[in-house]
Amino acid sequence: xxxxxxxxxxxxxxxxxxxxxxxxxxxxxxxxxxxxxxxxxxxxxxxxxxxxxxxxxxxxxxxxxxxxxxxxxxxxxxxxxxxxxxxxxxxxxxxxxxxxxxxxxxxxxxxxxxxxxxxxxxxxxxxxxxxxxxxxxxxxxxxxxxxxxxxxxxxxxxxxxxxxxxxxxxxxxxxxxxxxxxxxxxxxxxxxxxxxxxxxxxxxxxxxxxxxxxxxxxxxxxxxxxxxxxxxxxxxxxxxxx
Length: 242
Hints:
Oligomer: single chain
CATH topology of the largest domain: PH-domain like
Largest sheet: 8 strands, mixed
Strand order of the largest sheet: 1-5-4-3-2-8-7-6
Structural class: alpha+beta
Order of helices and strands: HHHEEEEEEEEHHHH
Number of strands: 8
CATH architecture of the largest domain: Roll
Shape: elongated
CATH class of the largest domain: Mainly Beta
């Protein structure tokens, strides 16, 4: 028997699907105002647990899809890259622009689950490949005396190739160092105890250090770490004395 509706069934089912991310909020409110001794309280609690899990899963899938689209875009703009398809290096964890010591132009960093990609942006958004370091071969030095916004990334197998980056602000440096430490730990061959992993992740995150960073960054921002400039000057003096 026809119901004489003007729209197809799919149109009526769309609205409940669109609102699925709000169901757990409704259930939270129901749990809050329900009597814990009532017969249906456990059912509402179980429904809340299920819908919270579904909402998390949907948001996670949406995020992964957006990152996958972005990785394809980066791949299409990247010139000079001769490695495998970028999707083989895991999810895109972070991306950002940094000043690099001894480089005039900004460097664009793309951190994947398994690799750190360094590129230079040219005209029309084209990315020129510069280098990359696998996360299993990556070292991070996040504290540089006198340079609160700078950090080093170094390949284990060739420590001479040290890259010094300067973040825009304290927040950018903190977030990147946190993500870099996470992928380094995840790609480390040996099993790391959870408490040791937590200690590593918390390094450089104290309130005292944050305060010192903020005070230092309000005074100055240098294009290169001081100790590297001093080393450069000493090298020049020694060359003149030869």
